[in-house]
Amino acid sequence: MIVVMNKKSGEKEIADIVKRIEAAGLQAHLSEGVERTVIGVVGVSPMFQDLRESLALMPGVEEVVRIGKPYKLSSREFQPEDTVIKIGNVSIGGNEVVVMAGPCAVETEDQAISTARAVKAAGASVLRGGAFKPSTSPYSFRGLGEEGLKILASAKEETGLPLVTEVLTPADVQLVVQYADILQVGARNMQNFILLDEVGKTQKPVLLKRGMSATLEEWLLAVEYVLSEGNRQVILCERGIRTFETYTRNTLDISAIPSIQKLSHLPIIADPSHGTGRRELVAPLALAAVAAGANGLLIEVHPTPDTALKDGAQSLDFEQFERLMAQLAPVAASVGRRVAGKGG
Amino acid sequence: MIVVMNKKSGEKEIADIVKRIEAAGLQAHLSEGVERTVIGVVGVSPMFQDLRESLALMPGVEEVVRIGKPYKLSSREFQPEDTVIKIGNVSIGGNEVVVMAGPCAVETEDQAISTARAVKAAGASVLRGGAFKPSTSPYSFRGLGEEGLKILASAKEETGLPLVTEVLTPADVQLVVQYADILQVGARNMQNFILLDEVGKTQKPVLLKRGMSATLEEWLLAVEYVLSEGNRQVILCERGIRTFETYTRNTLDISAIPSIQKLSHLPIIADPSHGTGRRELVAPLALAAVAAGANGLLIEVHPTPDTALKDGAQSLDFEQFERLMAQLAPVAASVGRRVAGKGG
Amino acid sequence: MIVVMNKKSGEKEIADIVKRIEAAGLQAHLSEGVERTVIGVVGVSPMFQDLRESLALMPGVEEVVRIGKPYKLSSREFQPEDTVIKIGNVSIGGNEVVVMAGPCAVETEDQAISTARAVKAAGASVLRGGAFKPSTSPYSFRGLGEEGLKILASAKEETGLPLVTEVLTPADVQLVVQYADILQVGARNMQNFILLDEVGKTQKPVLLKRGMSATLEEWLLAVEYVLSEGNRQVILCERGIRTFETYTRNTLDISAIPSIQKLSHLPIIADPSHGTGRRELVAPLALAAVAAGANGLLIEVHPTPDTALKDGAQSLDFEQFERLMAQLAPVAASVGRRVAGKGG
Amino acid sequence: MIVVMNKKSGEKEIADIVKRIEAAGLQAHLSEGVERTVIGVVGVSPMFQDLRESLALMPGVEEVVRIGKPYKLSSREFQPEDTVIKIGNVSIGGNEVVVMAGPCAVETEDQAISTARAVKAAGASVLRGGAFKPSTSPYSFRGLGEEGLKILASAKEETGLPLVTEVLTPADVQLVVQYADILQVGARNMQNFILLDEVGKTQKPVLLKRGMSATLEEWLLAVEYVLSEGNRQVILCERGIRTFETYTRNTLDISAIPSIQKLSHLPIIADPSHGTGRRELVAPLALAAVAAGANGLLIEVHPTPDTALKDGAQSLDFEQFERLMAQLAPVAASVGRRVAGKGG
Question: What is the pLDDT of residues C185-231, one digit of tens each?
């Protein structure tokens, strides 16, 4: 942190700043320039952010500049090499593009199993499906709960695909852990810090979606909650941010993919289903995400999207999904990747 | 809901739409115009939103238009007269402007009690203070927990002010209910639906902050979670939305105040401390909120903001708060209101 | 500007930075800390912004921090005392709240003159009205052009009110200058730099609206175009920014009012008509703006808003405007201001 | 347009609506449902948008719903087949991916010609370069003006590449037309309607960038200005929108590419240089845009980006551009496209 004094600031003001810094258990390092004095702050404090904001308001201060990044364990500086997460035969974060597909919400055993079979046949290597669903309205479908988890377990057994499913609240973590291979934390819960603590205490990989209005930095700080509890297996998932544009449900921020890969060693995948909210945009955005370097995709597939209980408008049917998988292989190859689970 | 067919759509497409509507247990009502056919959808279904999105993607459909509002119990249509919530001697939602003030986070008994006394003396009628704090970084201060609640209980006993304090997670609701007069649900938890369910099951008034990127409609749907559990005492709190502007921490949406009052019968207050993130903007925005019709204010006050563990940059000191209260009275009077607890 | 090197940067990288800074005609000032080296950049260069971005990408650089503000003539530092702009008997930027009112677009002489009379009677002190109208669609009404200016001239003569009217393009500046007392530059033209140059060359006060997605800094830089051409009379006008919320047409950023007053010496007014796009929100937001310290208001008034050719939905009729003016006086008084032109 | 009455509306209110519609020269078409009356509005009026807003505020109205799209000539409905624009040997809008590359701003003849040669050698088929530059600050470089155009003419002659260059203001259109093969209208001028009128009167193809906060609909309405003047050759260019995220300069909205291709018959290209503002993100986003179906790319290239007068931070050097072109070919092939000008 660097405190930049304004041109008119005097000795008294500088002394007050130094006193305030030292009161926080840190050291002040003065550098007097021609035009103004600059004060470096050295040391570590848990209240850094708040100290920074306070200093910014003290008399004589022009600006306070943070140096370095507030997240640590998730940063490239902390770990230069990529984290690769293994789930059964699948590796996320390496050279493969991992496709996770399935219904938004589990409705019936038939729906879940037929979808699991279809996505496996088309080349998906992880099954997605929701038993606990966040819903904007209390009057909408909120998922089958534990019954849904049991259905997903059958679908998993039937196909051998590992399962990613959402956990909504801390009290459910122990239950969901028994069924899931990857615990999903949704966009609305990205800053549900108690939930992050809880999934951080498990040994399961966590798929953490970006919050609707979260900056990359806030997202990596949310990741930090999980990592600092001891769970180092986090997969980030870009799912669209909220902007002024209403034609798409969200704006899928493709630039977040290479940005996160620069800032962090953790894998990042994209969810073009929620990211666009429109079925016809899922395939082009899936291809774009892979071309930009995504480590995987999360895709909603439903036997009959028109009658889906949830998010039918953004779900692909089996044929559309198969077609997408066929298009995906050459795009992955064109950027030196391969789609996991396909062929050999 | 109205389904508008495009000009080229034919009988087959119209028949498919009608079939789909009836399959959802609803009735279709055709109106054939000169240029195009319009289909009204009559009836009630929990999956309305998803049906709407599905219909929009069916062949021959130009647009699907939702009629009416998706929230019910919170709407003015459901209840034309204002809801007034009584907490001890204080009434929120009537003619008085209720000021809730206190520290962002409880740090020590001294800090809490001295602040409580100061805000009471200056005319606040509710004490605010956080024991459980959401924090963007896991390395920042997260509050004193139950110890903080006990300190707040002393401050409340000392001053007689009722207490509003945040509950972060469903498992803490039973604990916080024992101390709080109003349960605060923060912006990051506005769509923590399980938490909304839980506070909805209590008999305590709930102060529900607007999510950082929540539309008015999403906010009222979150309110609906609480109301539909049987708790009809919800106070909305505008606390700033996220926009592209970075000079202020958030953009306090003053227009949300009269808008919510038009759409809903529930009281709405404003939080200019979080809404601006800058101490020098708190007073002008507080006055603006009251001039626009706010039923109250939530203000952060700290004995020595420069050394606060949390949000010092947006906290007022005692003198600044006293000055704000002095300015508030004539502004409230100028719009036909009075500040609660002041004078007789 | 301060260049912060990362912890691993070596002598070679530091030397390259210094060379780059000196190549731009500036001086580098090294300060070697315990953990890292910090390089101050001293001097002035027109390409500062681009140099900053370039330095940020050079090897070994952690961050480049801008010191100070990029705008000058408009800043409080440059001129501590408020600029007060006089137009006839009206002073903008002093203790009075100046209300500018009139139709969005001039339609007929009757409409313009009757509105001018009505707003004058209710206490407005400047007449607004558009002859050249920006319109999102080429198929909508684009204004009467010079004929509209002539009608406005009659309305001005009739009432004695000075006139503010929009100029859309550089080629029209000389024409509009003959009719207007204040030249309005609209939100869509805030970064029409050639137009800013042109109005900067005139001696007329300029009312510069904030662009729909302009930061405060970008806005003040746009002001700087006008000031640096020699015209020091600029009035800023907050008219709502674009956010994700769609209930209101824009989100009126009330916090911009005290923020601009802190950063700049120029007057700032608010336009709650465009800022909300909804007639019933105009009055509460107008009161809020004045309570927050606005130097004036820009309000759309129409004899029969329901049949207005443009922006009827956000226009007040005569009676509504009169009621607003009556509410305004006590609010202005409550913050130590008075409405210009009212009473004595 | 459909006017939906609320449940409590009576005959008087319905009659008023009908009268208002007829007063605007349109016909009202009543449909009385079980719960409420719906009124269809038939006919064409230039003031449709304003009528819609007015009706929405009339007593008894629940909602007014626009049917169909406000833009016409640019819509897929108006012209189902893709528009292909030919400039010399280059076709934009067909099966080829057209890469337009060159410096942000022309600085010297050497810089322009060496860059033109380098981008041609690497496979670009159009030269880009700015002589008139919009600049946020009046103190920054604003381009060489006509001298810059002359330099670009030499670079064009030298390489045979057609030229795209920006025109900033209506008065310059006749000048720029003499040098440019494609007239660029920048993001800040997307709603400079007078400029759109002017370029619409020329016979040159127009490259129209999306405004920083423009919706797809507003963008297509801006296109409509050009088309309705008789110039049917418009290329849209997605260049990033403004969001809350600050890590990237803008958020490149990749979903706009397939969306525009669905809504319109016109070609769309992407500008990942402005779209990201960060050199290291240009290549991944360029690949993403092509994978999503972009008809071309606009890329900033500079011999020595670190010393560029403008936008060096987002410019590629010759080697980086060559590498990008090498990566581009297989990605284009993977989605059934080829890069224009490469090979045969």
Answer: 999 999 999 999 999 999 999 999 999 999 999 999 999 999 999 99
The answer to whether A38 contacts C40, with C-beta atoms less than 8 Å apart, is yes
Confidence (pTM): 0.94
Mutate to test the interface with A, among C7, C29, C31 (most CBs of A within 10 A): C31
Of A25-34, C161-170, D324-333, which range is least confident? A25-34
How does residue B66 score in pLDDT terms, banded at 50, 70 and 90? confident
Q: Are C151 and C158 in contact (CB under 8 A)?
A: no
Instruction: Assign 3-class secondary structure to chain D.
Output: CEEEECCCCCHHHHHHHHHHHHHCCCEEEEEECCCCEEEEEECCCCCHHHHHHHHHCCCCEEEEECCCCCCCCCECCCCCCCCCEEECCEEECCCEEEEEEECCECCCHHHHHHHHHHHHHHCCCEEECECCCCCCCCCCCCCCCHHHHHHHHHHHHHHCCCEEEECCCHHHHHHHHCCCCEEEECHHHCCCHHHHHHHHCCCCCEEEECCCCCCHHHHHHHHHHHHHCCCCCEEEEECCECCCCCCCCCECCCCHHHHHHHHECCCEEECHHHHHCCHHHHHHHHHHHHHCCCCEEEEEECCCHHHCCCCHHHCECHHHHHHHHHHHHHHHHHCCCEECCCCC
Residue C341 predicted with pLDDT over 50: yes
For residue A169, the chain B residue with the least C-alpha distance is B194
Angle at D46 between CA D45 and CA D49, to 5 degrees: 90
Q: What was the pLDDT predicted at A140?
A: 85
ipTM over 0.85: yes
**CA atoms of D5 and D64, how far apart (whole Å):** 9
Chain C residue numbers with beta carbons less than 8 Å from the beta carbon of D311 are 50, 53
For the segment A285-297, what is each residue's pLDDT rounded down to a tens digit?
999 999 999 999 9
> Of A218-222, B19-23, B54-58, which has the strongest mean pLDDT?
A218-222
CB contact under 8 A, C248 and B255: yes
pLDDT of residue A261: 98
Q: Do C42 and A34 touch (CB under 8 A)?
A: yes
